[in-house]
Structures are given as C-alpha cells and as structure tokens.
C-alpha cells in the first residue's frame, strides 16, 4: 500500500514550472498509489469554484484519471485555497476533508491537517484565519463579482507576504504546546502537516510517549512529498527543474 502526501504547491499562472512538476508527479510518482492527500495551499489563491486558476484543466484531468484508476484522493483546505468547494473536488474525484482529521495509515493512525491552526503564537494571523474560515464571510465573498474577488485575493496575498516578512521565525512556526494539545486530543502520536515551509521529521515526547511530527515542504526550486509504504515512510525532495 502506497500513500502520498503533498502540500504548499502554490500553483499559479506565473509559475508554469510548478504545474509541469505537479503533472510529472501525477503521471509518474503517484501512478499506482492507493491514496493521495492534498493538504492545502495547492493553489496560491482560489477565489471560488466558478473561477478556477487559469491553466489547471490538464491537471484536473490528470487528478480525475488518477481517481478513476482507484487512487483515493483527499483535499484539505489551506490558508490560500480555503474557498475550494465540492464542485471542484467532485471534478477531480476527491473527498473534501475537515480542517483536521485522523486517518489510519500503514504506519498507524495519524492526525492530518494543513498546519496553520498550530501557529497560535501568531495572534494576528489567528484572528485573520477565524475571519476567512467563517462560512458567512465566505458566502459574502463568493457572492461578489469575479473581478472584485481577484482584486481582494491580490490584496490579501500582498498583505500576508508583507506582514509575514516582519515577524520572527518562531511566530510563524507551530506552537509546541498546541501540537501536544492536538495530538493528545486526537489520541495519536503521529501528525502530518504542511504550511510552515519547514520540511522536517520531528520526534519528541508527549505525555510519556514518543511522538512524530512530519512537516511537508513547499514547492519552489524543490518539490516535496511524503511517501508512506507498508511500515515505512520517507520525506522526499526533488529538483523542480529536473521534472520530466
């Protein structure tokens, strides 16, 4: 049984190399997979299922083909693509996951999430997150004309990049107490997430048990994915430029 996890691709028209690398990943690496988890920020911005990112149709077709071939696809919202809805996930044959969930993998039960909800030291971001995850706010945004939504997405992205650059690294990373809290609440010792762009495998103690936190990497000059196969797992990187 092979299961793959990716996050933080930030696909956008300005980076066709990322789309090519993702296409290569789907047609080569993920072929024959039992499951593929897309853990948020797959798109750099998503303003509604009625206005998909330009140029993604070939990727949509590849994802649907993968799903039709027996690969279970899961999609989880990130902080950039929280407006992805069931219309889009139905098109690619994916199941839309809640913002955190526990799934049984070949290596045991894991708490799966995008990861931004763990960054509780960034109080400014947590307030923003609460606003944009509010269903009433989302419906208000989705009711606006597409050109207004495009302008809003650009504004939010620019503001986010500016504010993040001003913050210390520890502010934008996960809070260790929050990690332990969520693991204990879920009653598991394995967590998989993205968001922070700090790929690593962390082992630590939580309530007398050894726990593992696997952090997926973002796709830029390198791409990242987690492969879980039988009783093993690997966090793997590759050069975007080398993708066939």
From TrEMBL:
Pathway: Glycolipid biosynthesis; lipid IV(A) biosynthesis; lipid IV(A) from (3R)-3-hydroxytetradecanoyl-[acyl-carrier-protein] and UDP-N-acetyl-alpha-D-glucosamine: step 4/6. PANTHER family: UDP-2,3-DIACYLGLUCOSAMINE HYDROLASE, UDP-2,3-DIACYLGLUCOSAMINE HYDROLASE-RELATED. HAMAP family: LpxH (MF_00575). It is a peripheral membrane protein. Binds 2 Mn(2+) ions per subunit in a binuclear metal center. It is found in: Cell inner membrane. The lineage of its organism: Bacteria, Pseudomonadati, Pseudomonadota, Gammaproteobacteria, Oceanospirillales. Its EC number is 3.6.1.54. Mn(2+) 1 binds at residues 8, 10, 41, 197. It is an enzyme of class 3 (hydrolase). One of its GO terms (biological process) is lipid A biosynthetic process. The keyword Lipid metabolism applies. Keywords: Cell inner membrane, Cell membrane, Hydrolase, Lipid A biosynthesis, Lipid biosynthesis, Lipid metabolism, Manganese, Membrane, Metal-binding. This is UDP-2,3-diacylglucosamine hydrolase. Belongs to the LpxH family. Residues 1-199 form the Calcineurin-like phosphoesterase domain. Hydrolyzes the pyrophosphate bond of UDP-2,3-diacylglucosamine to yield 2,3-diacylglucosamine 1-phosphate (lipid X) and UMP by catalyzing the attack of water at the alpha-P atom. Involved in the biosynthesis of lipid A, a phosphorylated glycolipid that anchors the lipopolysaccharide to the outer membrane of the cell. One of its GO terms (molecular function) is UDP-2,3-diacylglucosamine hydrolase activity. Its cofactor is Mn(2+). GO terms for cellular component: cytoplasm; extrinsic component of plasma membrane. Its main location: membrane. It catalyses: UDP-2-N,3-O-bis[(3R)-3-hydroxytetradecanoyl]-alpha-D-glucosamine + H2O = 2-N,3-O-bis[(3R)-3-hydroxytetradecanoyl]-alpha-D-glucosaminyl 1-phosphate + UMP + 2 H(+). Substrate binds at residues 79-80, 122, 160, 164, 167, 195. CDD domains: MPP_YbbF-LpxH. The keyword DNA damage does not apply. Mn(2+) 2 binds at residues 41, 79, 114, 195.
